[in-house]
Amino acid sequence: MNWMERDQNAIMSTYQRLPIAVEKGEGNYLYDTEGKAYLDLFTGLAVNLLGHSHPYLLKKLGEQSEKFLHISNIFLNQPAIELAERMIEQSIPGKVFFANSGAEATEAAVKLVHKWKKEQKEEKRGIVVLEKSFHGRTLGVVKLTRQPGIYQDFPAADYPVFETVPEDLEQLESVMVKEKPAAFLAEPILGSGGITPLSTDFLQGAEALCRKHNVLFCIDEIQTGIGRTGTFFAYQQAGVIPDMILFAKGIGGGLPLGGIIAGDKLKNKFAPGDHGTTFGPSPLSAALGNAVMDVLFEQNGLKEGRQRADYFRQQLEGLQLELKTEIEEIRGLGMMLGVKLDADAEKVKSIQEALLHRGFMVNIAQQTIIRLLPPLTLQKEEADSFIQAFKEELISRRQEASV
Ligand SMILES: *Cc1c(COP(=O)(O)O)cnc(C)c1O
């Protein structure tokens, strides 16, 4: 049996897998067991922010692994304390709770909202989220993920969830007035919902409505955070100040790590026993988190990543202009981009497969959007080589269509 068959036999089928057995990752490339190289424009779904086998990250991982792998939350966890301080310094005054994944970050957020809610004088109930949001898949939070096929079929935790469409402040306010929610939760750029950025007007308006109606203003930066969009967190570009920030994906440098940063209203609401996790955070993950922070802030990684993202976007926009019709829209920020194609789902899938065959790994969101989550370390030549291949694939399909 080959690896694909063994996978199907032994592992539950919760993902549609590409038939590629990755042997190693180096820099911005993945290599399969045949030695074929793939430029990784997907980065393990926004995790490998600095590419693969980053020498500095590996060095820091090695140093920590020689000290201890795990100690439990009974002891002071020095790498975690240091990382929390640094994340607070780069965002809002407050305190951090560390977990091991994005969904666990949302779980902690929901429990914290619940603790806050019980202390309000007025009645408060539930959480408002946006249509096509994604906030995790565990039973406690799956209802917050408003995508067909994800949340409807399972028994979920019993708290009200209210859905509103993005960009509609009137609708948001009427939900706040009518339902008296405790919190508003949104991704600054809806990720799996289609790389849809929320406008600054909407984010600022939502923040103002939250203040007016005593609703917690919570931002899910699990995908957008840690420099991916050009600033440490994406909300920072809209000039808003959240009461709570959810993070995961990029911060662990490839290891599982997630959590929340809770501002002044929330930071002291958990008491011992209210919440916890054995592993969160693994000292290894926290040490890698500190290494990621070093690269971003002490080794110029954030600034250079932003410049590389600007270059990549310019090239994509150039391609859009040159082709005129194939690319309907390019959206997103920094190294989180969606290229909406004027093509049906089948054609977009065939483009993804052709690109993969040529050694470029891209993802698809909402069927017709090529989702690009390149590493902040993407080099000019790498961006250029992708643009060239993408252009050729789009043009070759144009010729097919006109024959
Ligand atoms: C990926 C993601 C999650 C869930 O994270 P997991 O680590 O997969 O549980 C939640 N919210 C957003 C915005 C995400 O992109």
From TrEMBL:
One Gene Ontology MF term: transaminase activity
Q: What PROSITE patterns does the record point to?
A: AA_TRANSFER_CLASS_3
Look up the domain of life of the source.
Bacteria
The cross-references to InterPro entries, in alphabetical order and at most eight, read: Aminotrans_3, Aminotrans_3_PPA_site, Class-III_PLP-dep_AT, PyrdxlP-dep_Trfase, PyrdxlP-dep_Trfase_major, PyrdxlP-dep_Trfase_small
Q: Which cofactor does it need?
A: pyridoxal 5'-phosphate
Q: Which UniProt keywords apply?
A: Aminotransferase, Pyridoxal phosphate, Transferase
NCBIfam families noted in UniProt: PRK01278.1
UniProt record similarity statement: Belongs to the class-III pyridoxal-phosphate-dependent aminotransferase family.
Protein name (record): Acetylornithine aminotransferase
